[in-house]
Amino acid sequence: MKESGNISIHTENIFPIIKKFLYSDHEIFLRELVSNAVDASQKIKRLSSIGEFNGELGELKVKVSFDKEAKTITISDNGIGMTAEEIKKYINQIAFSGATEFVEKYKDKGDDKGIIGHFGLGFYSAFMVASEVEIISKSYQEGAEAARWTCDGSTEYSISTAEKDERGTDIILHIAEDSEEFLDEFRLKSILEKYGKFLPIPIEFQDKIINNPTPLWAKSPAELSDEDYLKFYEELYPFQEKPLFWIHLNVDYPFNLTGILYFPKVKNEFQLQREKIQLYSRQVFITDEVKDIVPEFLMLLHGVIDSPDIPLNVSRSFLQADSNVKKINSYITKKVADKLQELFKADRPGFEEKFSNIGLFIKYGMISDDKFFDKAKEFCLLETTSNKLYTLDEYAEEVQALQTDKDGQRVYLYTTDAQQQDAFIQSAIQKGYSVLKMDSMIDPHFINQMESKIEKTQWKRVDADSIDKLIDTGIQLEAVLTEEQKTAVKEIFEATINDKQKQVQVEAMSPDELPAIITQNEFMRRMSDMSKTGGGMGMFGNMPMTYQISINANHPLISKLVELPTEEEKKNLAKQITDLALLSQNLLTGADLTAFIKRTVNGF
After folding, report:
1. What pLDDT, on a 0 to 100 scale, did the predictor assign at position 557?
2. Mean pLDDT comparison of 47-51, 100-104, 108-112, 165-169, highest-scoring range
3. Is 545 annotated as a binding residue?
4. Considering its fold, how many domains does the chain have in total?
5. At which positions is ATP bound (predicted)?
6. Ordered strands of the 410-415 beta sheet
7. Confidence band (pLDDT; 50, 70, 90) for 224?
8. 190 has binding-site annotation
9. pLDDT mean over 46-67
10. Which of 126, 171, 239, 262 minimizes the number of CB atoms within 10 Å of its CB?
11. Would the pLDDT of 542 be above 80?
């Protein structure tokens, strides 16, 4: 059996769904109705510009008012207006967009980017909060008669002639009992400021214009000064510290996109701030959840993005993924990389001064985006403990001679805490080695990325082993102790420590090194560091910490220990040496630390 036909859609069934479920947040009604009023204003402006309306435009604006006693909210405009026939055409036909029809009609007569509407559903959001809606409208057309349309939210309506002197439209909402929260000055003002702060037509509320119709991103960068950008930032984010710099986005092919992205000051941690990048479509606020539009590593930026080409769902509240979203994401990544490269080349000293604040963005981007990595490797900087900054290529050249091991691997030594790991840093410096500061939360992930991207390079934390083992040049030191003495020393320390998580070994090191060094395996330590900042390494964070205690067979104190006459004296000195090693790694705490201090004071 084969049959074909037309799917039947009944207005009485679909209308309640549109009214109650199309928009997740009822406050959206004001955004939709004000946007419609802005469109009406833009249309008359457009007709005037192409000579199809020769009357006086006057001061175009949208007025929002409310009457708490009468329980009404009114949205008024002096835009294009409607005849009775147009009301029936645009209002009574659900999902018939007058905005789309207007754009199509005049598409050959210039730019119509200012028209907001698209789906033809926004008007019905009024019934989410109103028990009855009135429209009083008068068309711009010469001799047009004003019309009144009323509806109580059912599929029935009435339309009649009305008294109205000026062109334009008044939408009067008779607010339902369950929505009387909107009959409040502060509530209405906050909604208008949220969604309409930058609408292109002045919005009047309580006799004041509450929006900026010509926001900075809609202007040409050539006509703007640094002061303009800083003032706009303050408008977006009051009381915030000044941004470091900004990027003005402006592209019209293969998609339309404008906006301004600001780099705020961000130190060594991700700041989960309330202020985010705001997404607009034709100057109407949509959302501040822009994870698909903006690359993840730039989510810490501030600013505004506006694009009529960003695909929105029918309620204009959420993004819908498509090829344009990916293109915009790639474009923003490229613009940010180009800007950073430009700043680096134009003023390297200035760039270096800013790097403590922007390094987080750059490193995060290099980890998460290969295209960004390819550009950023030219301006990403590494800082040493002597506060010198190098590009990746510069640093590779800097350490090539001294920090290449017997296998031809360049070894990058780094510290995660220069204060705590100072003894190890000093040992490295005495050897003529350089130590990098890698103390931000992103650095464990960055280090892994660098090892996978840069050939013949290993990164080792400066306290991960004795310095001669960290950079194994193949030269073996001889121990002053005999094998028998080394075995005896190991047994003394094992008995003194008595901890299976701390493994003891005796080895030949420089006499200038500490008598004992406590270290953690580089792999386990790095996995533990990464588990603290996420990255799927949680299992390592839960594993018991194991350490290696390396006893310096060539240190005078170890030779002294061997010569002590009694086992008790040997254990006391071994305990003091072990606690000193633990203290150097901040692992000596509580009662053990107190006992160490007392022994030290009393000459143990």
Report:
1. 93
2. 165-169
3. no
4. 4
5. 32, 36, 77, 82, 97-98, 169, 316
6. 435-437, 410-415, 457-461
7. very high
8. no
9. 93
10. 239
11. no
Q: Residue 418: give the domain boundaries.
A: 381-470
Do the annotations mark residue 97 as ligand-binding? yes
- The answer to whether residue 519 sits within a structural domain is yes
Task: Output the pLDDT for position 537.
Answer: 47
d(CA 490, CA 506): 6
Report in angstroms the alpha-carbon separations of 243 from 66, 110, 223: 39, 38, 20
85, two tokens: 């026939």
Q: What tokens were used for 470?
A: 């960290």
Q: Which of 129, 122, 153, 124 is nearest to 315 (CA)?
A: 122
Residue 442 sits in a domain whose CATH number is: 3.40.50.11260
Is 8 a known ligand-binding residue?
no
What is the signed CA dihedral for 329, 375, 455, 406, rounded to 10 degrees? -140
Question: How far, in Å, CA of 259 to CA of 250, rounded?
Answer: 7
The CA distance from 148 to 134, in Å, is 7
Give me 177's structure tokens: 């009992």
294 within 8 A of 331, measured Cβ to Cβ: no
CA gap 528, 444 in Å, rounded: 9
Q: Which amino acid is at 533?
A: T
Top pLDDT among 267 and 47 is at 47
Residue 77 pairs with which residues in a beta bridge? 62, 169
Inside any domain, residue 353: no
261 & 337 share domain = yes
| Best CA proximity match to 79, nearest among 195, 197, 199, 188 | 199
Q: What is the CATH number of the domain that holds 298?
A: 3.30.230.80
Q: Does 450 carry a binding-site annotation?
A: no
**What size, in residues, is the chain?**
604
| 98 annotated among ligand-binding-site residues | yes
**Domain-embedded: residue 277:** yes
Rounded to whole angstroms, the Cα distance separating 233 from 217 reads 11
The stretch 80-91 carries a mean pLDDT of 90
Q: In one letter, which amino acid is 482? A: T
- Residue 240 has what pLDDT? 85
Looking at residue 530, what is its pLDDT?
66
pLDDT at 291: 77
3-state class (DSSP) for residue 249: strand
Fill in the DSSP letter of residue 319. Answer: B
Pick from 449, 473, 575: which is nearest to 516 by CA?
575
Q: Are 487 and 562 in contact (CB under 8 A)?
A: no
Question: 3-state SS of the chain: helix, strand, coil percent to 5?
Answer: 40, 20, 40
Single residue among 209, 237, 271 that ends a domain in this structure: 209
Do 35 and 165 sit in the same domain of this protein? yes
Mean pLDDT, the chain, whole residue set: 85
Query: What's the pLDDT at 420?
Result: 86
Task: Say how far apart CA 185 and CA 205 lie, in whole Å.
Answer: 9
In 393-432, at which residue ranges do the beta strands (DSSP E only) sit?
Answer: 410-415
**Residue that wins the pLDDT comparison between 321 and 184:** 184
Mean pLDDT of 424-428: 91
191/64 Cα distance (integer angstroms): 11
